[in-house]
Amino acid sequence: MKKPFSASALMLAFILLASASVAQAQDKVRVVVKAIYASNSFEGFEGDLKKVEDDIRFQFNYRGYRLISQQEMTIDFGKQGGLEIPDNRLIVLSPGGLLDEKIVMNLLVVEKDKKLLETTFRLANKGTIYIGGPRYKDGMLLIAVTNIL
User: Fold this and answer.
1) Is 128:112 a contact under the CB 8 Å cutoff?
2) Of 57, 16, 11, 51, whose CA–CA distance to 38 is shortest?
3) In this structure, are residues 97 and 120 in contact, taking their beta carbons and an 8 Å threshold?
4) 103: three-class secondary structure by DSSP
5) Are strands 64-76 and 44-45 parallel, antiparallel or unpaired?
6) Which residues, given as ranges, of the chain have pLDDT below 70?
7) Element (H, E) at 23
8) Is 22 left (phi over 0), alpha (psi -120 to 50) or beta?
9) Number of Cβ within a 10 Å radius of residue 105
10) pLDDT at residue 18 in the model
């Protein structure tokens, strides 16, 4: 007569399978990156930015916000992904791994060979972070990074 698997053996197998799938899913991150023009020369939140008006107003004090660039990208840990923005600038993202179940992300904004901004932050699952970036026109460039994986 065959012995059935014990409950603990089944639980161990389940944990190992779950761990393997989490490790496989966590070797990359999928994000949406938005470059937002913030200024006092116009008023309101244009387009889809109206949905996040409260989040942005909580952190920044401009009268108007306009989306100037947006891109969804999947980036392997240890690699880089970039978003071209106006004025020959580039936003470069590089996920470094997990810390306390949050993705550690390095963000760099460059213009030609000049580094304008570099910062590191942790991004929760389904979370968004808004970062005040360099000057842009008569206002500021805001960068929104959302983890969608």
Assistant:
1) no
2) 57
3) no
4) strand
5) parallel
6) 1-26, 149
7) helix 7-25
8) alpha
9) 21
10) 37
- Helix (H) / strand (E) element for 129: namely strand 128-136
Task: Name the residue ranges covered by the structural domains of the chain.
Answer: 27-147
- Note the pLDDT of residue 5: 40
* 145: Cβ contacts below 8 Å, ≥ 6 apart: 31, 32, 33, 34, 93, 105, 107, 121, 123, 128, 129, 131
Tokens 């213009």 sit on residue: 111
Structure tokens that stand for 3 in this block = 């012995």
Supply the DSSP symbol for 61.
Answer: -
* Token digits of residue 116: 């304008």
- Supply the pLDDT for residue 26: 67
**Contact (CB, 8 A) for 134 and 141:** yes
